TrEMBL record:
Residues 20-232 form the Tr-type G domain. Pfam families: GTP-eEF1A_C, GTP_EFTU. Its EC number is 2.7.7.4. InterPro entries: CysN_GTP-bd (IPR041757), CysN_II (IPR044138), CysN_NoDQ_III (IPR044139), G_TR_CS (IPR031157), GTP-eEF1A_C (IPR054696), P-loop_NTPase (IPR027417), Small_GTP-bd (IPR005225), SO4_adenylTrfase_lsu (IPR011779). Keywords: ATP-binding, GTP-binding, Nucleotide-binding, Nucleotidyltransferase, Transferase. It comes from Luteipulveratus flavus. It is an enzyme of class 2 (transferase). It comes from the Bacteria. PANTHER family: TRANSLATION FACTOR. This is sulfate adenylyltransferase. SUPFAM superfamilies: EF-Tu/eEF-1alpha/eIF2-gamma C-terminal domain, P-loop containing nucleoside triphosphate hydrolases, Translation proteins.
Amino acid sequence: MTVLTERPAPAPDDDTPAAVGQLRLVVAGSVDDGKSTLVGRLLHDTKSILADQYDALEHVSRSRGADGFDLALLTDGLRAEREQGITIDVAYRYFATPRRSFVLADTPGHVQYTRNTVTGASTADAAVVLVDVRNGVSVQTRRHAAVMALLRVPHVVFAVNKMDAVDWDEARFAEVEADVRRVAERVGLEHTEVLPVSALTGEGVAAPAPGRADRPTLLSLLEQLPARRSLVAEDLRFAVQLVIRPRTEAHPDYRGLAGRVGSGTVSVGDEVVAQPSGLRSTVVAVDGPRGPQQSATAGQSVTLRLADELDVARGEVLSRPDSPAPAVRSLDGVVCWLGDAPTRPRQRVLIKAGTRVTRGMLGDLEQHWDVDEQRWQDGDAPLELNDIGRLSVQLAEPVAVDPYVEHRHTGAFLVIDPDTGVTLGAGMAGGRLGQHS
């Protein structure tokens, strides 16, 4: 790959720390806080820009009247984004250092696109939330902090950006840092860092910040963050996507349950239980893309064959009998409302949990998260676009759902409009938000 750099990327040597695995990273912040510029800076400083890509974007930068290369264009790839100078969709980028590889999601800052921030953060191992040092903590900062806490993002770094605009004033940074830490505490974020940066100049990002040579840069901190606990170490969760019955002469009795191992490990000889049906059997074969294999681990798509012909269909979740996925007839949790229309009492919806889709009805709103006050409030007002609330959903049939705090993949659910198929909300079963939730 040809990259545009002033010097070659550093090669690993005897002093280079061992690789610590891939990190899925989401970048969020309010409008014009410099998210896309920061992402462009990370791509530029890690030598991840193709030379022809740089030339093309340099031409676009000059056509927009910029004096130099506009780093934000590396992620604002849509024509509408370039014309408006904002990010309106989630832009995924990939970059790497000698120590770690990154999958990065640059999310929108406008309040009407908060739903896209939820999408970008739903699979993140870490988050970078930008705060403009001149404006301090904004409503969107509070909202993004709440989203990261609700989605249980393990590590959140608040990057106080545009420090060059205040001449790296330590007193101003300390003031913003104190406000940020109060917000993080109110929403229940456990592992947070606050760093001063300038995405425009690169100081504090990959190069040391003025007067802070002994402190980590944003990039070095991201390299050092511990990876999320391996899904292989968690309880087995295998959501059935398809029942395979080829009925051919070569395989007249073949019946396999195809799906993806969400967590844990499944091996030939393991006893499993299907939820919500509660039927039990033993795994007699694990068929992978290249044929039979002895076992499969989290992240692998395989077909399982069982010793018994159980009435197990799409939507069932296979787990071990000693740690089964709970089967529930109602969901109680926290919902981020993503629909343009507000919630309605006893609103009929579809609920998608894992691979199962079933009919449901929204219950009364129990509490509403006040973004300004950073606390739960009682009230019967409906949830509007981008609101967060606690509510219950009555289901037409049992569904296997774990508490979100225990199993991220099988603890999340979607609320869908049955008439249009539009996603109305993203929910976390038993979700927690705030110090006393």
